[in-house]
Amino acid sequence: MEHPLAALPSVHEILRDPAFRAACGDLADPFRTRLVRRAVDSHRQALLEDPEERHEPGPLFSSILDQCIREAEALQTPSPRRVVNGTGVLIHTNLGRAPLGALVEALNESDLGGYTDLEWDPESQERGNRDLRLQRQLQLLTGAEAALVVNNCAAALMLALNTLASNKQVLVSRSELVEIGGSFRVPAIMEASGCRLREVGTTNKTNLRDFEEHVVPGSSVLLKVHQSNFVQRGFVERVSIDEMVALGRRLGVPVIEDNGSGLIANQYAALLQDEPRVLDSLDRGVDIVCCSADKLFGSIQAGILLGTAEHIEAMRRNPLYRVLRLDKVRLALLDRTLKLYLAGDAGSLPLWRLFHASLDELEARIAQLRLPKSGTRWLSVRSTPLQGRLGGGSNPEAVFESLGLELRHRELSAEALKRRFATRPVPIVGYVQQGCFYLDLRTCFPEDLPELQRALDELGGTGDALE
C-alpha cells in the first residue's frame, strides 16, 4: 500500500507556483519558505493522524496551495483595515468603537516620524514626564485635582484598586459585578488587582445599610460600577453616588467609580439623560473616577483616571503604571481630542457628527446612491426608516431615529447577502432582521458611499452566477 505521505507535495513545488508567487507580493524569500513549510507540516500531521484516509496528489496540492495563497494575501492586507459600518451602532466594539476621522491628522502635526520630546523637559534639559501635559488638559476640562491616562478603562480600574485597595476589602453591590466585552468580568479584574472582593446587597436591591454593615475604616474601599450594558427594572434599589460619598467621608474610606462610557459634555441630547456624567461624579466628591476614552468621549482606546491629587500621585508612583501607560502615538491622538474639547468643539468629533446627523442629511446620503432598478438581480433596494443605537455599553435600551437601505436579492437570502457584503475587499457590515438585509446610513461616512455603490452594482450585475 502506498505510504499516506506519498501524495504530499514538496515545499519547492508550492514555492514555484505562479499563483503563490503573485500572492506573496513583497514577502521576502525566507518567510515565503517558512509559510509554505508550516502549511505542508500541518497537512503532514493530519495525514499521520488519519493514515486510512486516501488522498490524491492533485487535490491535496490544490488544498495546500490555496491555504498558502490565503495566508500570503492576509499578510499583505493592512491591519486593522477599513470597514464600512452599516449596523447603525455608533460605538461598535467589534469595529473599533469611536471612529477617529480627522484626529489622525495629529500624527503628522506632532512630527511623530522623528524624535519627539515625549519624556524630555527643554527647561531643565533633563528627563520629563510624558503625561503631565494631558493632566493639565484634563484638569482644565473637568476641574479634577489631578489626572492620569492608561491603556483602557479596565486598566484604569485595576491601577486604582491595586494602589488604593491592595490587601484591603473592596465593597461593591452584587448588581454591579458586571461582565464587559470579551468575557472580562469586574470580579476578575478586582482579584488580579490584589484586593479582596466583598459583595454587598442582593442582585436586585442594595441599600446604604448593606455597605455600612461591612465597611471597616482604614481597610476598606467603596466601589461603584456603572451597569453600562444592561438595565434593571421593577423591584430594584441602588445606593446613589451622594450616599456612597457621604459614607466614605464619614469613615475616611476612598470611593472609586467605574463610570465606563466617559460622557464629559452635558449638552448631548435627551437620549443620554440616563447616562452618568463624569463631571457630576467629580462634583459630588468621588475620590477617583475611571472612564473610557473610546466610547462617549469619542477618542482613542485609553482609560482616564480623574480625582484627588493624593490618590493620582500614588497611582503614578505605582510600578504597575509603567506597564499600563500610553505610547507616543496614542498620546498625540488624545492630545488632539482634548484640544477640541477645550476649544468647545467636541461636537466636531466623528462620533458626535454621526450622532447629530439629521434625517435630512441621511436622505441626502441615500440620494447620492444610484439605487438599482428593475432588470437586475436585486428584487428591491429601498430607503427605509431604521433605529440606531449608541452601543459600546452605553444606554443599552436607547434607540433613535435613523435612515438606511432595505435590500432584497433575487438569488441570495438575507444571511447570504450579509455575508457577501461582509467578505468584500472593503467589508460592509449590516444586519438581518425579519428576513431582510439592512444598511444604516447614519454610521456610514460620506466617503463610504462609493464603496456602497460598487457593492450594489456588482451584486446586481449580469456577470457570473452567484453561488
CATH superfamily annotation of the largest domain: Type I PLP-dependent aspartate aminotransferase-like (Major domain)
CATH C-level of the largest domain? Alpha Beta
Overall average residue pLDDT: 88
Helix content: 25-40%
- Rg, rounded, reads 27 Å
Class computed from helices, strands and strand pairing? alpha/beta
List the helices and strands and how they pair.
Layout: H1 11-16, H2 18-24, H3 29-49, H4 57-76, E1 84-85, E2 89-91, H5 106-109, E3 120-121, E4 126-127, H6 132-142, E5 146-150, H7 153-165, E6 169-173, E7 179-180, E8 184-185, H8 186-193, E9 196-200, H9 208-212, E10 220-225, H10 241-251, E11 255-260, H11 278-283, E12 288-292, E13 303-307, H12 309-317, H13 319-324, H14 328-342, H15 350-356, H16 359-367, E14 378-391, E15 394-409, H17 414-422, E16 428-429, E17 431-433, E18 436-440, H18 449-460
Helix pairs in contact: 2-4, 3-4, 6-14, 7-8, 7-12
Subcellular location: Cytoplasm
Enzyme class: transferase
Cofactor: pyridoxal 5'-phosphate
